[in-house]
Amino acid sequence: MATKIKLDPVTRLEGHLKIEVEVDSNNKVINAHSTGNMFRGFEKILVGRDPRDAIHITQRICGLCPVSHSIAAVKAVEDAFGYKPSFNAMLMRNLILGGNYISDHILQFYHLTLLDYAKGPQQSPWTPGYDVDYRLSDSENTALINNYIKALEIRRKAHEMTAIFSGKIPHVMSIAPGGVTQKLTSSNINQFKTYLNEIKSFIDNEYIDDLNLLADKYSDYYNIGKGCGNLLTYGVFDIDTNGNTLFKSGIYKDGSYSSIDISKIKEYAKYSWYTNDSGNRHPSSGKTEPSYGKSGAYSWLKSPRYNGEVFEVGPLARMFMNGEYTRGISVMDRHMARGLESKKIASEMLNWLNSLSTSASTYTQLPLPSSGTGVGLTEAPRGALGHWLNFNNQSISNYQVLTPTCWNVSPRDDFNQMGALEQALIGVTIQDPTQPIELLRIVHSFDPCTGCSIHVMDSEKNIKSKFVVSTPNPNGAI
């Protein structure tokens, strides 16, 4: 008889994710369900708003990759306006997005994943935790934990660097239809470069070495967690005004590469808590009508599919499509691709900085048309991100967001195909069912962000608790 193992919530990721698997008598996973536990209502919040508001509102979907949402939204708006930003503005957006990528990849490796392999200090908040399959020597473990601490400072500096051109972080202010509103000066370019050189040195000399050590000690994880085997990417980081990108768009399937046709994307909702009419739709005509408790459903995530098939997205897909990392698809391959991508982006950012012109414009004010339709495709650190926009009478009539984690962590679709993560869990053997560290290692390799794929709502206002933040009254008392 199969035994069930449930992780709820999965920790060290953004949002609330539940993983439930069944294992056979040999502790081998034979069935898996991934569940996003909360509803995201941003598509409904946006209806009736000025289309330009989407750039700022959709960033609130997530505090980890707000820049990617701002880029997707501004691309959708500019597509509807029929506008292409200048090369100078593209470079500034690349630098803002690149800073967010580096910060996020360092976070993913050191603070969300490393403790699956290295023992943290035996005190709160690192305890309690699993105590199985740790393979590092004491000196290796100490070195990695020291870099875990150092990475906190590096991430702070990556945020400060990004804020130079973005105004602030998270939730950037300067990205707008028409370009980037932040003034470009020699002083802020040099300031940005100082930060970048230090962060690049950490990536080149510590992150990559730590990653190689982990890959050496846990080389069997090159054979664990493959999943669907299909990869998809929209491409990201504009490198000219002709639509070419640093990371190419496309799909990888059955050992072959081909271009992507976004008309073949559909979201399904048979096993999602949405009305049946919300499923089997292209995002451009998508609907977000909740139906919690629907029979058979088990997640707030929909199930996006490309030409009816399951695809994985993320750094591994981007590096595969560029031909810069093609070793395989597994837990360790995802980590390796993410680290190497960080190194590549940091190097390119130096080139982009040197290509900026303080005498060229970065922003053009655009009039708001009465109506329009647009799509904004980019890549969040976690993978392919798309925004679809329709507006009439200068207000949004429909808006749909398709996030990377929906691609990776979706439930079954209308054809009963498991999502990419669910497939990756199948077949793994768990050493100790009371401490299923293997499940966490697979989940964390995808870097799920269910806060991005779902979000907060209680439709019946059944509030369990309330937090009140005091503010000074006019007399100065609290």
From TrEMBL:
It comes from the Bacteria. Keywords: Metal-binding, Nickel, Oxidoreductase. Transmembrane segments: none annotated. It is found in: Cell envelope. Its main location: other. InterPro entries: Ni-dep_hyd_lsu (IPR001501), Ni-dep_hyd_lsu_Ni_BS (IPR018194), NiFe-Hase_large (IPR029014), NiFe/NiFeSe_hydrgnase_LSU (IPR050867). Its cofactor is Ni(2+). Belongs to the [NiFe]/[NiFeSe] hydrogenase large subunit family. Heterodimer of a large and a small subunit. NCBIfam families: NiFeSe_hydrog (NF033181). This is Nickel-dependent hydrogenase large subunit. It comes from Tepidibacter hydrothermalis.
